[in-house]
Fold each of these.
Amino acid sequence: MKKQILTTPNGESYPILTGTGLLDTCGAEIQSVVKPCRVMLVSDTNVAPLYLERARKSLADAGFSVNTHVVSAGEESKSVTVFGALLESFAEAKMTRTDLAIALGGGVIGDLTGFAAGCYLRGIRFIQMPTTLLSAVDASVGGKTAVNLTHGKNLAGLFHQPSAVYCDVDTLSTLTPHEMADGAAEAIKTGILGDPELFKIYENGNPLADLEEIISRAVSYKSRIVTEDPEEHGVRKLLNLGHTPAHAIERLSDFKISHGHAVAIGMAMMTRAAVKRGILDKNEGMRILNTITRNNLPVYCPFGAAEMAKIASIDKKAAASEITVILPERIGQCRMEKLPISSIEALFADGLEGQE
Ligand code: NAD
Ligand code: MG
């Protein structure tokens, strides 16, 4: 079991536990953070049949009064409609300011539940129990919550930090290889940003045997960044390595290319561009590309620089006429560069050069 503490900017802190067996001990663990109260345990139609009952029982045994709310699995549940129904469900259960929501699932459930908890009665507490690798290494930590609008992803949301995060790594065993690869992309990203040892697990090691280590390393890096810059005015932007091209790739593929896979392609592009521009050594660049490939992730981009640049320029991350892109300098260090929107196409073109 690994335990980490994230300190929020207003001085509060919350525990992040990663280990085996947490589904069955979550009640006792949560009791040490939140006194027994009413709980809305939120999950989806894939996760609930596998894991909901064990979490429910553990919470009930610890004295919590548990209600459950299960939504359809999939990104479609990050909608205003499903969000509204969840709020109504909180009200139906007569939840008060001192009660608790728990997200048991992947990033979709975490984002949806966190947003509803942040809005209900102007904010109640919530706890993350991530069941995907992507959520464990990324989405469950840091307090970003949101749902999608018809105009785009994550357009309605708020910053609302969880009161605790419990990741039972045993639950990850039922994910598909594709879903594991999605999470691996964000973990490899963290390695490139600031943790060469984490990168090496994906480069040479056996990531499946090292999940606790991977998650705690990724969480530790993200916690440091979030503590320093919770609302993404500065260093938190680093976490967007590969994400500017990735968002364009997701959109151009009509979301058939998943986020993690798109991030892998985006990181490959930023790597090639950094080598071409003399920012990153060629051998380090090869190590990054090989490591992405070794972990069943793509490095080839099926779209052109012009069509991608068009989308990036209307992306919400493009503040006015400039865009911040992240370029690797070496494995474990990246730089932020502010570029005029007009030069993004040339950067993407550099990123596509030489791909097979
Ligand atoms: P997801 O929640 O849709 O989970 C992926 C699939 O795996 C779903 O079908 C789900 O039902 C299933 N699943 C979940 N856990 C399982 C398990 N243990 N066994 C079997 N199946 C399981 O998606 P995700 O990849 O976890 O997260 C993606 C979402 O997270 C996106 O909406 C993205 O915007 C969001 N996200 C948020 C942040 C943040 O900081 N808030 C960061 C990254 C991503
Ligand atoms: Mg991401």
Amino acid sequence: MPVACGPSRPRPPATDRKLPRVNLLRRPRRLRTTPAIRRLVRETRVSRSQLVWPLFAGEGLTAPVAISSLPGQQRHSLDSLARAAEQAAAAGLGGVMLFGVPLPEHKDATGSQALAADGILNLAIARVREAAGDDLVVMADTCLDEFTDHGHCGVLRDGVVDNDATVEAYVAQAVSQADAGAHLVSPSGMMDGQVAAIRRGLDAAGFEQVGILAYAAKYASAFYGPFREAVASTLEGDRRSYQQDPANRREGLLETRLDLDEGADLVMVKPAGYYLDVLADVAAGSPVPVAAYQVSGEYAMLVGAAERGWLDRRAVLTESVTAIVRAGADIVLTYAAPELAGWLEQ
Ligand code: PBG
């Protein structure tokens, strides 16, 4: 069978027609010929409403401070945080993920400021809710690492993070975050049983409508490097005794299944771009929405190379987030969220 020409191509006189040099039934290039046809058949569409912007609130700040390892991102004062939340809502983003950075003198061994109603993260949650109401989904990091003087995600016993004592602190922290107005609490410390305990604690406190976005498969990744500067982390050593080994794929499914059984409303894979296999596994089996976190190091690599002129910023940020959605993420946390929102098709 001769291959049909496109309808707009002028037909050559019959005598000039020759058979194509290759005679193929399938020519995938047909669906790549124009921007319109490519747009029509695109399998993965990224929309603003699925993007979540991580934001940092710094205690004692009266003006935002640039985070040098995360170009374009800031540690916010409460006022500038409120403006960022308004910007996120106006851009049509899905939500914000809030982190608090206390003053160094407010860090202690148990991270007590993480639970305090006037701790910086709880003040930030309240301020963002006041500014954005229900126009954004307000999420809060439920973890102690920004608030402990040793920088670990929990309380220590004999130099090791004590799972069950830490879970108790997370429950109190989650309730304080719900009280401050968080729509979703987001336990990120990878303690065993944290989701079940938080669910029970929220329910007992009357917050049965506050959801849990569980950092289900979270790896002990070197790609969190710039985040450590963003939150002025005091961590020495690493988190390998509680976060997952980057070499383990199957374990991501175990962690996800446990969190689902414990009542997670959404599950997350983190980091995202180097963990697309884990993300695809989780997305294939998850009965709840799946989020993925394009973490600080992923963002910093792309924008750092772009600043040197080695990569095209818009192209690589768009491609990287498209790949994360293609792999199965319904929701993407990314520092590029507002920038992407300006570029995406409506
Ligand atoms: C823990 C937490 C971390 C990140 C998000 N939540 C740091 C860690 O686990 O070491 C990292 C996010 C990023 O790198 O962008 N509170």
